[in-house]
Amino acid sequence: MARILVVDDSPTELYKLTGMLEKHGHEVLKAENGADGVALARQEKPDAVLMDIVMPGLNGFQATRQLTKDPETAHIPVIIVTTKDQETDKVWGKRQGAKDYLTKPVEEDTLIKTLKSVLGG
């Protein structure tokens, strides 16, 4: 299946998302902040990135923008997965280049469907 990079500063969220993805046969890479996520994406070229917003240092909006504007990583779809559920956040996330925007707690079916859709499956 796909290699998915999960960028989230919450160990609980990393654990939950990893469990859902691995159950569906995906390989999971993990980063605990935006800067590490950008570096890992450049290094590993995952098939997709699940990006939290509220993180120390480089936040998810900034990290998403860096990935989608960089010719090396622009082809990698970014899905924002966050507790921020305001319409303005969703619009801003898409403006940064995110392919989709999911609100936590995310349902497993929704996550897998969204992944399939951005991976063209």
TrEMBL record:
Keywords (A to Z) from UniProt: Phosphoprotein
GO biological process: phosphorelay signal transduction system
4-aspartylphosphate PTM positions: D52
Family annotation (InterPro entries): Bact_response_regulator, CheY-like_superfamily, Sig_transdc_resp-reg_receiver
Domain Response regulatory: 3-119
Xref: PANTHER family: PROTEIN PILH, STRESS RESPONSE REGULATOR PROTEIN 1
Protein name: Response regulator
Species, as recorded: Halopseudomonas laoshanensis
UniProt lineage: Bacteria, Pseudomonadati, Pseudomonadota, Gammaproteobacteria, Pseudomonadales
